[in-house]
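Materials and Methods. Structural model of Dirigent protein. The 185-residue sequence of Dirigent protein from Ilex paraguariensis was retrieved and submitted for structure prediction as follows.
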Amino acid sequence: MASSMTYTLLLLTLLMVISTTFIPINGKFSEQFAETKAKSHVNNMIHLHFYFHDIVSGKHPTAVRISGPKNAFGATAMIDDPLTEGLKPGSKLVGRAQGMYALASQHDTALLMVMNFAFLEGKFNGSALSIFGRNRVFDMVREMPIVGGSGLFRLARGYALAKTVRIEQKTGDAVVEYNVFVVLA
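The predicted structure was written out as tokens:
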């Protein structure tokens, strides 16, 4: 009888712990913070602006297809694209976009972007931001999440806005303007 009573008490305790663990905040799905709490991170926000040069043609491409059918669902490319301060390819190099992208949608032109912006210039030299998200390439502006980083960007979060500035229809080479907003830990 004692073991049955002990078992019942343990079960009730476990049920209480489980039920209180999954109760939403204040009985709501979300909570709005006071203005002072919501803006406290703004002091740690950094805005970066640069151009991404995706070169798929010529003798020295910076994006190379590594698997999947050409220009169709599943096509995957490995990249080591220059990031420059200005629009022209010869402008000051500030970093490299290294990683991969793949055509990840069967219904529209959307890429899965998995890349690091590895910076080579200024106070961010040696630091990197990690991007992991969806890029609907024909949208005017695309938003992708920053999921972390290294160096000065350790534990960073934020978002990147990408806007295609130029695409060569014949070669597929593209220049994309990036505005990146990063909140440091």
